Amino acid sequence: MAVxxxxxxxxxxxxxxSGAKRPSRLLxxxxxxxALVPMIAIALVVFLGGTxxxxxYSFTDSGLLPRLDWAGLEQYDxxxxxxxxxxxxxxxxxxxxxxxxxxxxxGFTLAALLDRKIRFEGVFRSIFLYPFALxxxxxxxxxxxxxxxxxGVQGIVRGWGWESFSFDPLNNPNIxxxxxxxxxxxxxxxxxxxxxxAGLRGIDEDIWKASRVDGIPVWKTYIRVIIPMMxxxxxxxxxxxxxxxxxxxxxxxxxxxxxxxxxxxxxAKYVMSAMFGSQNLGQGFAASSMMxxxxxxxxxxxxxxEFGGKKRG
Length: 313
Fold this sequence. Notes:
Residues 1-22 are annotated as: Disordered. By secondary structure, the protein is mainly α. The chain contains 14 helices and no strands. The chain has helices at 2-19, 30-57, 74-80, 83-114, 121-129, 136-146, 153-159, 176-201, 205-213, 218-229, 231-246, 250-255, 267-277, 281-312.
């Protein structure tokens, strides 16, 4: 009887505690939420506020200083009728497409090779990742020397006796973007390689054992099994690559300065030239708003792929 009474009292206490009203989700851990207030305020004021401020003043006729002298769509009309801006968009599209494909292919290939448990893997991983630790200014200056026709690849090969050899991409308007692409791939491939290697290391070893038992070639296993399983890894890598492409600036300034002529202009350099070179803030704000639009176009598909699929599941 005593045991039954104890069990009954315990049950009543549990029911009473469970029936007590729990604090709402908003009121749980109040100190942690208070600690987030400064960060949220900074994000709203600096990032969101700065974005709205830029968009608003892109519709003004601001010159050296911002002023609320409304000009409607005049800045955008002038922007899209300027050949320099059109060339910069074309260059960014060419560089972006080639950089995205090249970085993914080279990065995944290097990761697949390192995933075979080769000797001195840590040494090779450090070597491939090292360029990412350098700034784009340093990378641009290094590759400016490497591609210099007198001291770089062309000069070395001609010194070996091939006098007719020609490799001078930075001074050729038709292929200057490919010279920039070489430097961009050299720096950005290491990070993608590490991301892909982490994804490959998360693949269950039983999948490889099953493919070997079934006699499936390694390359077919990668294409039909491994790569589809690594879709989130590829999406993350694509977002990182795309964000770096949109803000491409340092590499161009260090290697070519936008030349020859305007053949290597990019949107970020156009913004800096308009705001601080031509002292036309309205034009720079309009170009910045168009760059923001391109970032939104990138983020929306990423958010849909990352979160939309999970909700449907």
